[in-house]
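User: Can you predict the 3D structure for this chain?
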Amino acid sequence: PKMRSLEQILVLTVLAAFSNVDGFVPSFASNSLGRSAQRLKPTKMVAEAWKSTKQMFEEFIDKQAGQWASERTYHYINNPKYGDGVERSTTVFDVSPLDDEAIQEVAEANKVPLDGLETCGFSVSFYTEMKDRGEKIRASTNVVFIPEEEKLDGVVEGFYLRSSGYEWDKPTKSRFTFRQGADIGLGQLQMKTVYDTCISVDQITLLLDNTRLRRIVNFALPEDAGIQLDEATLVGFGVEVRS
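Assistant: Here is the predicted structure, written as C-alpha cells:
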C-alpha cells in the first residue's frame, strides 16, 4: 500500500479527533443565553463537582497569561482562497487578564446582558509571520468566557465572546467546551465559531504550565444548518511555549 508522510498522518489524526467530539455538529439556532436563567438548582454532589470543574476552568484561563512563542503548520485543502498547499508560520502572543470594565465592554459589544453571570477572560495581541507568502499579521482582541452548562463529567460549556473575530473585524459570539482529565494535561479548551465563509474549530490543550498544543480546523459552510461538517478547507497545528 502507498505510504503516507508523517504530516499526512497528523492531518488525518486531527480530523479524526475533531469528528469524534461531542456537539461537533453546529447548532445555528443555539446562540441564546436564555438557558442561563433556567438552570435547575443543583444537588450538593452536582454543586461540588461543578465547583471543581469550574475552578479548573478558571485556573486554565489564568494560566494563558504571558508571552507565548508559536510554531505552526497549516494544510490547505481545496481552500477557496489558497487552494492546496502547506504553509508554516511563527507567532508571538501576548496575553493579559481582563478587568471588569473591559469584560462589560465586550459583553455590550456583543449585545449580551451579563446580569450577574460569572465570567472570566483575557486580552490577546499577536504578531504572525507567514514564512512562505511573507505575509505579516498584527491584531488583537478581548475575550470573555461565560460558563453556562453544568456537567458532572469534567466538562464546562458556555459562550465565548470577542471584541473582534479572526475571520472578520467585528464583535463575535461563539461556543466553547472545556474538558479536564488525566489524558489531556491541565485541560483542553475548544472554541467553535460560525463565520460567513467557514466554520472554525480552534483548540488549546495545556500540556504543562508553559507548553500548549494548538489545533485549528476550518470547514466549508454546510448547505443546510445542522448538517454534519464533512469538508475541511484548512487544518493547522503547532506547539506554543511560554517564555
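Strands lie at 66-79, 83-97, 120-130, 136-150, 155-162, 172-179, 188-194, 199-208, 211-219, 232-242. Helices lie at 6-19, 44-62, 100-109.
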